[in-house]
Design brief:
2 copies of one chain form a homodimer. Chain A is mainly alpha-helical and 155 residues long. Chain A is built from 6 helices and 2 strands, in the order H-H-H-H-E-E-H-H. The longest helix of chain A has 25 residues. The structure holds a DNA duplex (30 and 30 nucleotides).
DNA sequence: CCTCTATGGTAAACTCTGTTTACTACCAGA
DNA sequence: TCTGGTAGTAAACAGAGTTTACCATAGAGG
C-alpha cells in the first residue's frame, strides 16, 4: 500500500498554504515513515490500519469496544484488526465473552517491543525536526500544537 | 468511564504527546469538518477519497496521470475517482485519448463552486484557530509549519 | 425466581477503494 | 518502418470498513 506522495515539491508559495495541507502532509509523512521503520526493524506485517490500535496510548489492558471507540470505527472492524494483530503475535485477547468476563487486550512481548520501538522512532523524528527547525522553534511548534490539542478546535 | 477520542478529551498531559498525534488529530478533524460542511452546503456526494482530487492546488487543467502522482495513487484509481466526480457533475475530462490528445481535467461550474467553498471553509477554520490561539500565535504556527513544509522532513 | 433490557462481542454479507495485471493508442527517434 | 516510452483504460483481485443480525452475560424490577 503505497501512500507515497510526489517526489518533488510543488511550486507553491508557503504563504498560500492553508492549515489543512500544512498539517496533513507532514502527518502522513510521519505515518508512512513509522510503518516503514517498524517493518524494517523486524516488526513485519504491521500496516496502516494497525496503527489505529498501536497509537498512543496503546491497547494494553483495554477492552476491544473502547479501542473501537478511540479509533472511531465499529467494534466489528476493530475486532478484525485485533484478530489480525493476534495472528501476527502482537496482542492477545483474554478468554471469550461466553465466559462472562469482558475481554481485555494485552500486549505480547513482541507487541510491547513494537510499541516501544514506535515511540523510539517518533522520538527520532522529533530530534530531526528539532535539528531542522532549531530546538527553540521546535519546542514552540509542539507547544502551539498542544494548545490546539487542549482547545475545543479538534473535537 | 470510557474516554472516547471523538467526544471527550483523553486525560493526557500535552507534554507527553508526540508530534505524530499532535499533527494527525487536528488534521483529521479538519478533513472531517471539510467534508461535512461541503455536503451541508449542497455539494452532495463528496466523500473522503474525493478530497485527494479537490485539494490544493486543484485538478483544473491537469492531466489525470499528474493528479494520480500528486495524490500518491495509481492512475487507475485516480481515473475511477475522476469518473465518480464526473458522474457527480464536478469535473469533465476532455475527449478520449484515442483522439490523440492528452486528456485534461476541467472543473464544471459546480466543481469550481465546490472548490471555492472548500477554500472558504478552510479560511473559516483558520479564523477560528486564530481566535482561539490569538492571531500572533496562529501566524507563528503557520509559519513554523511552513518551514517544515519547505524542509526535506516531509518528503 | 424469572423476564426484560442494556452491554459487549461476534459473524456474515456487502460496499467501497485501491492495486495488480494486461491491453490499446499515440508519438518521437533510430 | 520499427521500437520503446508515455498516457489512459479495463478487469480481476485484495483489504478494510459498515450494516445487519445474532448470541451471551449481567443487572434491575416484577
Amino acid at each position: 500500500m503505497s501512500m507515497s506522495f510526489s517526489k518533488e515539491k510543488p511550486p507553491v508559495k508557503t504563504k498560500d498554504m492553508l492549515i489543512g495541507a500544512l498539517l496533513r502532509v507532514p502527518a502522513e509523512a510521519i505515518l508512512r515513515r513509522l510503518i516503514g521503520e517498524l517493518n524494517a526493524a523486524g516488526f513485519e506485517g504491521l500496516s496502516l490500519p494497525h496503527m489505529a490500535v498501536l497509537r498512543f496510548p496503546g491497547p494494553d489492558g483495554v477492552r476491544p469496544g473502547v479501542l473501537a471507540e478511540r479509533a472511531g470505527m465499529s467494534k466489528q472492524a476493530m475486532n478484525r484488526l485485533l484478530g489480525s494483530l493476534e495472528d501476527l503475535g502482537y496482542v492477545v485477547r483474554s478468554g471469550a465473552p461466553s465466559e462472562g468476563r469482558a475481554r481485555i487486550v494485552r500486549f505480547t512481548k513482541r507487541g510491547r517491543a513494537a510499541y516501544v520501538k514506535e515511540v523510539e522512532i517518533l522520538r527520532g523524528i522529533e530530534r530531526e525536526w528539532s535539528a531542522e527547525l532549531g530546538p527553540r522553534d521546535f519546542a514552540r511548534l509542539k507547544l502551539l500544537l498542544g494548545r490546539v490539542w487542549d482547545s475545543p478546535l479538534v473535537r
